[in-house]
Amino acid sequence: MNIWLIMALGGLITFGTRFSLIYLFGKFHIPEIMRKALHYVPPAVLSAIVFPELFLREGALSFSLENHRLLAGLIAIVAAWVSRNTFATILAGMIALFLLQFFGA
Amino acid sequence: MTSLKNKYFWAGIRAEFPLLIGVFPFGMIYGALAIEAGLSAVEAQMMSPIVFAGSAQFITTQLIKNTAPGFVIVLTIAVVNLRHMLYSASLAPYLASLPTRWKALLSYLLTDEAYAPSIIHYEINKLQPESHWFMLGAGLALWAIWMFSTATGILLGAAIPDSWSLDFALPLTFIAMVVPALKTRPAIAAALTAGGTALATYALPYKLGLLIAALAGIIVGTLLENKTVGARLSGDS
């Protein structure tokens, strides 16, 4: 298959997936339980993205203190909890990671 | 009204900013890998606006390098992007009153990194007049940086050293967005279930682990909410 055709089909499918439920919403009755469920999409999806970023090192799970990203991530979680501020959270996590990489084994 | 649109548009760009720091190295790596996989500079660059999905573009590049058949590549893109259906469902109630052309434009821009700040904005501030300009600002900022970082990667290769760890800005921004949103026990349970499931399923290909983990978290959160409400109604909480 031609590369341009692959890209065009890939783009159409990507757009179609993103557009699907935004377009269909309101055209069908949505049960109350589904509406409730939608509010759990953000915490569920974001955690499902974040956990592997913290715990996976070179393709394997790492729960040790030598996992700098895990430690820096935990510091960022505390910073987020206390400050409720995006900039402060990122700064805390980045500085923690730099220091751990610089001084850590 | 114009100032309101402006306000939301710039607020969206501002909210997107920390994610851009993390996305930039990814765009460069994509551009460099695409050239390495044998795509021409024009093909590599044009995949960014045509497909506009980071993980799908990485996998496509890999499959082209492995000379996989076209229909396999297209199917893979479909599977990798399945999670976007969750984003589509979750944003749908907030975009319901917009004209179709707006829905189409915002759908085109609906990446992980545009979804996160937009849905958090909607959940905190609820639906306001003109607040879809927030998502437009966030989405366009990401779009522009994705195109620019792709071009940089094509021209210079992946020139940002790994040791700078700029990519870590992405999970950190998601942490900054999700932690303050964890106000109820069902929400915390949803987050922990999804995170734990993501670790248990990390070996699955094509982002399927992410999809399963998200679904598990959503189900646990919803069940717990129903249980709590049920207990309250029957008076034994």
Describe the structure in your own words:
The complex is a heterodimer of chains A (105) and B (237). Chain A has five helices and two strands, in the order H-H-H-E-E-H-H. By secondary structure, chain A is mainly alpha-helical. Chain A has two domains: 1-29; 31-103, no CATH class. Chain A has a two-stranded antiparallel ribbon. In chain A, helix 4 packs antiparallel against helix 5. In chain A, 44% of the residues are buried. Chain B folds into two domains: 2-164, no CATH class; 182-237. Chain B has helices spanning 2-36, 41-51, 54-65, 70-80, 83-95, 100-108, 112-125, 132-156, 169-178, 185-200, 208-233. Chain B is globular and about 65 Å long. Chains A and B meet through helix 1, helix 2, helix 3, helix 4 and helix 5 of A and helix 2, helix 3, helix 4, helix 5 and helix 6 of B.
SS class of chain B: mainly alpha
Helical/strand content category of chain A: mainly alpha
> Terminal Cα separation of chain B, in Å?
47 Å
Give the radius of gyration of chain B: 19 Å
- The shape of chain A, in one word, is extended
Distance between the termini of chain A: 49 Å
Number of helices of chain B: 11
Number of separate structural domains of chain B: 2
How many β-strand stretches of chain A? 2
Helical residue percent band of chain B:
over 70%
| Biggest sheet statistics of chain A | 2 strands, antiparallel
**Overall pLDDT confidence of chain A:** 90
